[in-house]
Design brief:
globular, intramolecular oxidoreductase activity, interconverting aldoses and ketoses, alpha/beta, single chain, 5-stranded parallel sheet, RpiB_LacA_LacB_sf, Ribose 5-phosphate Isomerase B, Chain: A
Length: 161
Amino acid sequence: MNIAIGADCYGFDLKEAIKVYLLSQKHELQDVGISAGDSKTPYYETASLVANLVGTQQVERGVLICGTGMGMAIVANKFPGVYAAVCENTHAAKKSRSINNSNVLTLGGMFTTPILAQDILETWLMTGFTQDWEPDIQTWLEHSMKDIAELEIAQFKAQLK
């Protein structure tokens, strides 16, 4: 899978650990930063880079790490076609994919260990949209994504006026 990854200074160490894991699993990575020693790049710049790659379908998924994961998710969700979810455990990761079809995972570098992050990431990558739901719920979830996309388009058009 082609994945964009980025962090701020609070997520840098966790990003580097995650990169090792993803590369060992043969994923293709686009690391948009930050680099070692960079404490100046704000989280919203990194989030924008990853969100743009995901939203324009240049990559399949994105992973963002800041102090809490929340700032990155807020910024990434401003981009059309991006569905970012803060996941602090594997249950949240599974539900963010199976219910919400999230395509960007955000993590908190201040409180997520590399081992936990690996478990969350593996769960998130391996879970499919509508996985483990009954057929009627699967159909409802699939239709909901179409409705959400229409709301999103309408909202972005309204903002451009």
